[in-house]
Design goal:
Blueprint lengths: L8 E6 L3 E7 L6 E8 L11 H12 L4 E6 L9 H17 L4 E5 L3 H11 L4 H27 L1
Parallel strand pairs: 1-4, 4-5
Antiparallel strand pairs: 1-2, 2-3
Helix pairs in contact: 1-2, 3-4
GO molecular function: hydrolase activity, acting on ester bonds; nuclease activity
Function: Could be a nuclease involved in processing of the 5'-end of pre-16S rRNA.
Main location: cytoplasm
Length: about 150
């Protein structure tokens, strides 16, 4: 991996309905929520879905040097149907944003942790559903950033 002190990373939480996006600061210390995108499930198979186009625009806008996508590994450490789905999404994203690398990282329990943290702050119900994907993306990216710093 390149020097973490250089460049913004985007963190992505891929859901069935929405995609949460977070960004890091240029020094790779702190992840913050960015946006929630609606999944485009109606795009033709040979077309780029609008959520992938929007992600590509965010990569360009923030001059991201890498995109970190949460891979939903089950508690036993296995890759189930959700992980296969996210891997396919990440592969399509990599094609759209090349040469910017897409990295998969274990996101076990990120949405649960994000939901709990939001609830602790008094964010519940519809308000929570509106931001939980961004909060999960923050959890994914922050965990990845922390792991990278521990390795160096």
């Amino acid at each position: 991996m390149s020097d973490l002190s250089r460049g913004v990373r985007l963190g992505v939480d891929v859901g069935q309905v929405r995609v949460g996006v977070a960004r890091s600061d240029p020094h790779g210390v702190l992840a913050t929520p960015l946006v929630t995108l609606a999944r485009d499930l109606t795009a033709a198979p040979d077309a780029v879905p609008s959520d992938l186009s929007q992600l590509a625009a965010l990569v360009a806008e923030h001059e991201a040097v890498e995109v970190v996508v949460g891979l939903p590994v089950n508690l036993a450490g296995k890759h189930g149907p959700a992980a296969v789905h996210v891997k396919g999404y990440a592969d399509r994203l990599a094609d759209v944003i090349a040469p910017v690398p897409v990295t998969l990282t274990d996101e076990r329990m990120s949405t649960v942790v994000a939901s709990r943290r939001l609830a602790e702050r008094g964010v519940r119900g519809k308000r929570q559903r509106a931001v939980v994907d961004q909060a999960a993306a923050v959890e994914i990216l922050q965990s990845w950033l922390d792991a990278q710093r521990r390795r160096t």
